Fold these 2 entries.
Entry 1:
Amino acid sequence: MKTLVARAFSSRLFWPVAMLVVLVVINVIAFPGFLSITVKDGHLFGSIIDILRNGAPMLIIAIGMTLVIATRGIDLSVGAVCAISGAVACSIILGSSDPGSITTVATAVAVAVVIALVLGLWNGFLVSVIGIQPIIATLVLMTAGRGIAMLITEGQILTVNSPPFKAIGSGFALGVPIAVLIAAVIFAVAALLTRRTALGMLIEAVGINPEASRQAGVRARGLLFAVYTFCALCAAIAGLILTANQTAADANNTGLFIELDAILAVVIGGTSLAGGRYSLVGTLVGALVIQTLVTTVYTVGISPIVTMVFKAAVVTAVCLLQSPATTAAIGRWRRRLAPRVAVEVAS
Amino acid sequence: MSTLAPERAPRSEQPAPRRSASRPALVERVRDVFTSPKSGPVLVTAILFVAVFAVGGVRYPAFLSGQVFLNLFVDNAYLIVLAVGMTFVILTGGIDLSVGAVVALSGMIAASLLQSGWSPGVVIPLILVITSVLGLLVGLMIHVFEVQPFIATLAAMFLARGLCYVISQNSISITEPTFVALAVTRIPLGGGLSITPSVVIVLVVIAVAVWVLHFTRFGRTVYAIGGGEHSGMLMGLPVARTKVIVYVISGFCSGLAGVLFTFYTLSGYPLSAIGTELDAIAAVVIGGTLLTGGFGFVLGSVLGVLVLGIIQTIITFEGTLSSWWTRIFIGGLLLVFIILQKVLTSRRR
């Protein structure tokens, strides 16, 4: 039992999961029906479903961000890519003669995704070929991206009336919100591709030491292109979900600050910004922590605009708890209390 | 700037051997100055600024006036102060994302306290203390708990932005006489030119920053940390203290920038100055400070702000271009300067 506790304590997922449990408990106390899920018209309803649905875009971006961060990179441009993909899709749907047809929506989505892939390649090019620090390379697109989205929408908020497009954001399939299904598929694909093949290990190798991994025969350049493109793809899909949810493309506000939330989700999940190792499950937990926190603020009855203060508190708490100084302090404390546990962990 | 850079550059160039003895020393030296990672980007920025100013002067008759130039300082006073603070942080290899939110927070504190009858003589020092303490906390978080600057300042950004909303969700206007006086007073410089009191404050800030960074031990330590934190530590420099202090400086500058911003807008609004941190970072980069730390000048960052300001002015003069072109231009410029820095630094190594 002691070993089990010790192992749980030393797990990277311990603090994020503990945080999530605390948040859920607070919710259950404040709002006893929190955990219940009901079926209405063949659709699932409930607070948890809401959390999953509202958190889906952030989770999708966080998945792409996890892989980017694993290569010791960061992608600040995802919010701008969200805005661009939403703007592209909406302007295509608005420009077509039949906004309600599935073909139009499919074209719009396809074009938006292709443009996002180009933007991802651009980021990958700056980082891997020119060798610019990722935070700055993506800052370029972050700064210019919203301007580009404004050009596409011509400064307007484009409102579309297209049921198939709306379904991406707020529709249901098999009783589950489509946005959640999309997030699940992307999560599964990312997890299978990187954890069932050597890809994940190679990505981590690039994050630990790009030069050494290149000399060991890892094609670092190609991998960097791949992760930035994948991240932009995730951002585009999230942008489409956000836009479809509002049925409007707002170049200024679609995906505003989502890059920060996504990075927070990744960091709370225990992936180090220094690269070299990552945990997709951790990212999932991190995204849930953030979204549950937002929901908690609503259910407990605190004014929702104060959310940011709580976000700051949670981020600070998790970062401080995960920091090397704290880990060392806890380690000392544990060794003093129960020397045997420490020995067992070490062995 | 152009007078400062050539003076200082020769000191850094002793390892560069004279490649051809036949070439005149002047050409050699000019080329060395332009290709050094230290002064090259700054000079390019200076030339760009003059070029843009000249292009504006050719296109629009009223452009080439002293007042247009002075208005760059009047309109961007707060951004210059932010960029100066950011320069310190970036020189150590860090980054401060919280500055925009702290500007908004200081504006909110000023507006709400003045509304409830506090004296400006108390409010302004109080704001500067609060924002410096916030910077201190961020610095300690980064140093003691080894949280990445990006994440620590991000948390500070959320905190500051959230506190703005806690104070008020609506815009609070300022009617306090001293603030209004500071906002509307113009100091005549003769010849129909005038500046605001904010510009004077900005000039003092720049002067102090130049002195601290280039003429004190603390300033040398900042550069040393950017050049290599570990080597700095081995040399016995006070790395820990300096690393924390740069965030205090950035916090103080954000607070001061917030006060200047309030002089400019005469109100506090929780959503103001969103994205200003990006403008400040862009100005610092365009001003020739290397984001990995170790290279850069305070005056370069000032020049960076002026370049951003003049682009804005050109777009205003043009009239037909929409304001979102500003962002695209800034993004493009950033790209050009980053690539330039990359080329210059890789050639030297």
Entry 2:
Amino acid sequence: MIPFDFIYCRPSTLKEALDAYRQLQSEGKNPVYYAGGSEIITLCRAGEIRPGGVIDLKNIPECKALALDERALHIGSVCTLNQIKESKLFNLLRLACGRIADHTNQCRITLGGNLCGSIIYRETSLPLLISEAELTLFGPEGERRIAFDKVFKGRMELQPGELVLQIHIPSWALKARHYHVKKTQNEKIDYPLVSLAALWKENRLRIAVSGLCSHPFRSDQMEAVLNNRALSRDVRSKEAAAMLPLSPLSDRAGSGEYCRFVFQNTLHTLLEEMENGKI
Amino acid sequence: MVRYEGKTVVSLNINGEVRQVMVRPSDLLLDVLREQLGLTAAKPGCKNGDCGACTMVIDGWPTKSCLVLAVEAENHVILTLEGLGGRAAVQQAFVDANAFQCGYCTSGFLMVCHALKKQHPVLPEEHVMEEWLQSNICRCTSYQEIRNAVKIIYERDQSRI
């Protein structure tokens, strides 16, 4: 059980959602936006957060949209990971969604929730970081459309009261050559030691990584080395693995040096499969 | 806009019936169904979304009811094991395959298998079956028997055509 009370709001429009946020804020309720709810319920039950109000976004049509047009794929923030998988519209994101939690939880966890949550891995961010994705946000200052990597700096940097409305992936990325791998300590369903997404644009490799450091990242420096074909695969993977933007995590899943070792081998395999035409 | 504060009566569509329950907004669906409606097939296990013992089917998809607020379930179609009636094909297949030992996880597995059959009327590829079944944990490790039960469900369905 959740050992405290909160106010539950279920708006049907964006304006109602924002009004609810302002009202609860004015009542000192410290409200949170709520989508799939898995993380919020878990943290409430464990006493790690104590919101006085939750605003459930699942009844807002714009947040539920999942549509493809000639320019982009548009995914509402409350679309579940399973809906995204079943749609089969962006295979790299489908692969990333398919390795987060288990299938039943994928039927509840939403794209917006995974991006905005406090669990550090945020693995759905990886395909978005390398596909020139954009976000539509809605908040007290109105609606704005912005490049994903301008708002996502390892975690979402939203304004107070702002929510993610939709995620847009340009059409070129939907069919681009891609690769995804997630390595865990032991079990298939677990947090990652290394989770890596790769995408090619104009024959140039882009990668984004989660699990290795305290937040997901994409590194231009690392990509420059990986794309330097004058160097051997061994040298490229070793040099790239030495360029982590932050110290590798050292936790129950593995020591920092072990995680870096796994990452280096993962990169080597990626380069090998790419150059052997297996990707 | 719906706004609930304090104890409130809400209507839930469960097993084909509309039932009224009195809930706090922070009450979990699992607790409400067990404690107010006596629907005790869904079991509290980890209560953390890991074990799957509390799985029910909402709008056709398996859902861990320890991670759902009761108020969220308004306007959705909820199916618990009680709603299968006791002689459903999936239940008979579990009996015939000896797909349980202590039985604590069984209701959760049954609901996952029921949803799997509804979403994939034809026997899916092995990796799809495995993906669905991996959502639940059986500490007696009856995994092979459970997998056999799923195959029986599809085989019997096929033999009726």
